[in-house]
């Protein structure tokens, strides 16, 4: 059960206290406060956990300052969207992740040299971009493959990120100790940038890791759907993060594994973008690079990676995670799926153009008469 | 091996004759002429079938009037796109199916009453649309379910199609005799409209049926990918149609079956649109209704069926097959996935808007400098 | 609703008449008689089709000679197993297909030469086997591949079948005209053998073909599950055959397509054997050759095809369809998955041994005390 | 490259030293000794890691005491089976896991009460069984579901295990700290039993966890294939464990997720048993309970869980992991798939009977003549 309080009240603390007191009457029921920002307001919610089936909603509804009481039937209580008007998203280090606009997170799948990081970030800065991806810890199918440079590369990645004005670096982690290393490296560098902790597809149901990134509140989490799990299972996995205290989660689609996606690397699942938007409060990201897998698949001179990105954005994704590399022929990981720096401006122009079309389509709320349609078409 | 002749030659017949003579030197090799229209010209091709491995290309290349000789390595020889500049598509009864624009094929999944057909076509006419879908023969999973009205409904479907100016009615067939029935009903009604024969997903590898629709040349074929087969298998199935003599094929994506698509009916596979465009000469259609399955899945007031359609179109689909119904609550088949007539104008406006964005993205061939990008964004 | 009559009654005709009369009272309800053989008796059933929801069971139960009345909730009415004690199976041309024993249907996936047919059948005869498979019509993914010898090979196939004492030849058909050809060829040869019509995986939902094999009663049907459809869909497909009048159906599992089965050709689905046995009256066959795909996959000198066959049989399959070839290196179709004639005796010995173990396991109904177990182990 | 030494040599140390010296000539090449027991002998191997492509095999082959030198082309070097005669398996705490026989690991999916543990182990002891499964840490899809009793239950689980003569308790771990807890609880109880660390399907590609169980050598690891990953990926995951130093790994199949397995919980993948046996040195286990999912699916009074187990064993699995519960109706996790204690003796008798048949089939190496076959059948 969720008790939503009225926003912008001066007596918020007292209301919370009152709700907690009432809840205490019911044995086994615990309360957890939770703040959620949307549409310019901060909503405070008290979540009731435990045997709530016998708890009547009226005892909370009659408390002054309570906006509404929601019985939660879905299994994802915290990440779920419980009323139509909720907006998705959050702000981190000056960057907004949410329904208001489009954020492109372009960069290196795996950091290999300082020079490549430098070239990459320089190109991003020229496009006015302030977010990037830089893989340091790389989980690989085979133990003898390149596993990423690890903490060794963090000093120059963060230094250059600060230098080029990056506000957030998305970086996969596979173990809690890596978060300590990131914290340490940021501190050593004087906190020049922010970090988004990325949960990779293979760890999508590594619940211990999800708890760890949920227990820290410094960094938002970019959660990638497991390539073999249902959307329902993926949303439940995000609930693990949120239930530990960290509500700042970006939900990322990256294609699913099946024999029906060939010759693409995965079967693009971006038709799920509107589903995630309806079911949850989470901003939705798409990763066309890992979905499609090779930039050599192209038609009319346009790589399929563009088209997949376009499909995510036209359906409402508010961020795009995409692989670039200054010299993809020498990349140590996933080179074939990296776009080149020369393609960056056109890519950015393309997805922004598609985003505009998406926004126009949402704002088309005029009654749709036949006459209108013919004129407008 | 394919011998492509120079277009617009007066001595075409003589060149064909010469090619056939040369080919006759090689034992077991047969020749099949094939005409293909693209970019304003009609290309004549001679396909060499049989043991062509030992046949040198030079003996044909030196014949005056031969444009080029292509060794075919792909398994789909006729539907394959063998050179970059080929255009997809064909014209039928005054309607162009191909890369030049977008055709929306909206209508009833299953015809139930004359009145509904009337209401549907009237709405289409108001939008200036000249193509529709009208299901008469419905293959159903269970033998005791409604199997469509069959030939009984053809008279009024064709009569009304003529009355409302429909130029093509897409209609699934599951057996050769149904084509006879359609021919008969069209003749009885005075040929008031055209028909597109639709091959459903369950018959995607019913090779005998594919041969039958390939052996007739009157009607184009809309081929739906089987929901459990690979793209490669689907393209080979189309080759069955083409190899019997009918090159006018629309390739339709309609979602694939897996456990990873829930809660949609199928997993939308429209990321394959650019793949089909690159690999074949076939115009590509998408069917968002059967992919998504329910118009009640919606966000921001927009059904997921819109978003899926948008994803197909932004990736280059040149037609959209979509279910509407004047009274979906009484539809005998797939009612939950039918949009209402009130939603038709907005749907048409939406997909046309997305098509424009697609076309702009293709025509963006200017060198992509950083400066351009920032201005343009 | 199914009215089951008492078996072995002299006044059967009168009882049937009475049931039909009573049913006639209910508007829209039709009756269909249906005979089903099991456990040594022939049960006659009257199936009520149409709006039976309002029909009370009592009006039939009180008719003398009615054994029981079953309300059918499952969608497969005729192939469904509606009471626990029903036995599966039927007899055809002196061969029993059903729970009583194990039938091995070994032979050529595709007939290529008379000599190979001769060698194959000679080997079968030496093993005392009277059923075989001989593919004449081969549906292939690509139109340019070998499509089988068709009717051309039927004369010598049937002649040799008669000569070697074969009682049933399983043979895939993809079109109704092929059944005419088979009838004709059998007649020309003096009806020396029987035929089982095989429906291949690609035609599993080709409902028109299913109706055609259902409308004839001369030949039983071996139905292969579609490699991308659910068990429920496959059972409904069998219902198409039965609802047209032919109850003699063998349900064959042959592996399903997914990316998780590699390096086998398909993912073996023989765990569904007990499901089919519980849900239906159909005898269950397994096809290890098409499931596994290559006899070169082996361990301890035993090809995986053996192990897959063993898995089907230990779970209760009553027949095994398996590819052999006298010279697999020159086979025109699926050579890599054919066992050699030298392996035939061991294969037969193996599956019979496993069948014995299955039968022992079923008959182990003694109370399972701990002491028994230790002694028996 | 793998240098296999002759077994049972007195001068083993000197030979190892010599091999290491020779290897040291090649820059970047490291040596790792590895002992592997099979067919009654202990083979010592030296694995060469690094740039071995340019290293000739002859320099090792000429060292006295070297049995053979194998160039490793597969990606799983340590778990791979590199020569036909290798035997799978290892011994732990007096129990042999390997090709020599069948081990049934029956027990509680999730420990709930001391009483149930007591009843369960008592029943096992009566059957003469010395291995069991006892789930303490349960990863669940949703964070609000029962997550297992954790370390709280370890004292009585180990105490009772000792009391009832259990030699190994299989127990899933999801985090390295749990191994510390297990070590501590065992020490506190006076080390009355052994433990097998189980890696669950959701952590099959949690490489950090795999490294942790690989870095300890006290406990063997039972690795469950991820339900959405290929066999190749699963074997590579095992290589993570082995490459950290722990070669004692049991490979467990437990069904894969797809839409084609319904109404079973998963699609049983036990046809992969012979594949794992051929490709690796790992003993193979099957888990029929999680594959099938419900013991209420049954035919002829035999639950499908029996049949699935039989399918694994007839194909060569040397252990079976299976859920039982004294009172399944009150089980906190997966109750519907637990067999009852009354079914235990029959289950054990059944799988042992099937195992015998498997062993007979392997030992049938006599030339398979037709005459033999008829007599034997």
Strand order in space, largest sheet of chain A: 7-8-9-10-11-12-13-16
Instruction: List the quaternary state of the chains.
Output: homotetramer
User: What is the count of DSSP helices of chain A, taking H or I runs of 4+ residues?
Assistant: 12
CATH homologous superfamily descriptor of the largest domain in chain A: Aldolase class I
Strand content of chain A: 15-25%
Q: Residue ranges of chain A: pLDDT <50 for 5 or more in a row?
A: 367-377
User: Can you give the mean pLDDT of chain A?
Assistant: 91
What is the top-level CATH class of the largest domain in chain A?
A: Alpha Beta
Q: What is the string of helix and strand elements of chain A?
A: EHEEHEEEEHEHEHEHEHEHEHEEHEHH
What's the structural domain tally of chain A? 2
CATH topology of the largest domain in chain A: TIM Barrel
- What global shape of chain A is seen? globular
Largest interface: which pair? A-B, 71 and 71 residues
The secondary-structure class of chain A comes to alpha/beta
Report on the architecture of this protein.
Chain A is α/β, with parallel strands linked by helices. Chain A has two domains: 2-70, Phospho-2-dehydro-3-deoxyheptonate aldolase, domain 1 (Alpha-Beta Plaits), CATH 3.30.70.1140; 89-362, Aldolase class I (TIM Barrel), CATH 3.20.20. The first copy, chain A, is built from twelve helices and 16 strands. Chain A has helices at residues 12-23, 58-61, 114-126, 154-163, 176-188, 207-215, 231-243, 273-279, 288-292, 304-314, 344-363, 370-376; strands spanning 2-5, 30-38, 41-49, 66-70, 89-92, 95-98, 103-108, 131-134, 168-172, 195-199, 221-224, 249-253, 284-286, 298-299, 302-303, 319-323. Chain A has an eight-stranded parallel barrel, surrounded by six helices. In chain A, strands 2-3-1-4 form a four-stranded antiparallel sheet. In chain A, α8 (273-279) links the parallel β12 and β13. The longest helix of chain A has 20 residues, at 344-363. Chains in contact: A-B, A-C, A-D, B-C, B-D, C-D. At the A-B interface, α8, β14, α10, α11 and α12 of A face α8, β14, α10, α11 and α12 of B.
């Amino acid at each position: 059960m969720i008790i939503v309080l009225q926003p912008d009240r001066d007596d918020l603390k007292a209301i919370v206290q009152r709700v907690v007191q009432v809840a205490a009457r019911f044995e086994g029921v615990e309360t957890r406060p939770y703040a959620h920002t949307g549409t310019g307001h901060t909503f405070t919610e008290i979540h009731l956990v435990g045997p709530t089936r016998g708890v009547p909603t009226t005892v909370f509804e009659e408390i002054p300052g309570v906006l509404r009481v929601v019985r939660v039937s879905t299994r994802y209580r915290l990440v779920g969207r419980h009323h139509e008007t909720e907006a998705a998203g959050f702000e981190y280090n000056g960057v907004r992740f949410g329904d208001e606009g489009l954020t492109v997170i372009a960069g290196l799948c795996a950091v290999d040299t300082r020079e490549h990081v430098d070239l990459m970030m320089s190109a991003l800065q020229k496009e006015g971009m302030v977010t990037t991806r830089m893989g340091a810890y790389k989980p690989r199918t085979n133990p003898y493959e390149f596993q990423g440079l690890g903490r060794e590369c963090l000093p120059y990645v963060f230094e250059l990120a600060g230098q080029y004005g990056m506000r957030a670096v998305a970086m996969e982690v596979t173990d809690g100790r890596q978060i300590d290393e990131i914290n340490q490296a940021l501190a050593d560098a004087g906190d020049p940038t922010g970090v988004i902790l990325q949960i990779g597809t293979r760890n999508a149901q590594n619940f211990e890791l999800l708890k760890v990134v949920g227990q820290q509140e410094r960094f938002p989490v970019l959660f990638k759907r497991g390539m073999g799990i249902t959307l329902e299972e993926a949303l439940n996995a995000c609930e693990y993060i949120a239930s530990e205290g960290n509500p700042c989660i970006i939900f990322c689609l990256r294609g699913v594994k099946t024999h029906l996606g060939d010759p693409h690397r995965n079967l693009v699942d971006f038709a799920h973008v509107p589903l995630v938007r309806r079911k949850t409060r989470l901003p939705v990201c798409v990763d066309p690079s890992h979905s499609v897998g090779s930039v050599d698949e192209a038609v009319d001179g346009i790589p399929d990676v563009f088209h997949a990105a376009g499909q995510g954005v036209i359906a409402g994704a508010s961020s795009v995670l995409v692989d670039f590399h200054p010299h993809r022929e020498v990349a140590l990981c996933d080179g074939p799926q990296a776009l080149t720096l020369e393609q960056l401006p056109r890519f950015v122009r393309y997805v922004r153009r598609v985003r505009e079309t998406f926004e126009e389509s949402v704002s088309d709320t005029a009654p749709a008469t036949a006459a209108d349609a013919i004129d407008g078409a």
